[in-house]
Structures are given as structure tokens and as C-alpha cells.
Amino acid sequence: MSSQVQQSFKIVYLTTADQLDNFLKKQNNVSLLQSWHWGETQKAEGRKIWRLGLKSNNELIATL
What we know:
Layout: E1 9-13, H1 17-25, H2 36-44, E2 52-56, E3 59-63
Antiparallel strand pairs: 1-2, 2-3
């Protein structure tokens, strides 16, 4: 008999620099263009930005 693990995913808004930048610090091949501060630069230029993350089991596993 096999047991299946139910995995749920949730898209969330990232609301603090720490949420995003701490996640990015753990990743390989990260670009400055993914950072919180780059988003702030874009916002200052009048662009609309979205900071989204993908969570599984309440853990951030990706940024969008």
C-alpha cells in the first residue's frame, strides 16, 4: 500500500525586504534585478511592481 503526501502550494505577496532577500541569499545564480532594492528603484521610476512568492508547507520555495 502506498501512501501519498498531500502537498499544497500558495502564492503570497512578499511584504518585507527580509522575506525576499533572505530567500535569494540561499539561491545560486541570483541577479541584482531580483532584489528588493531593485524593485524599489523600479517603483521610484513609476513602474508597477509585484513581489510574489510560492509557499509550500508554509515555507517559501520560489519567488515570482
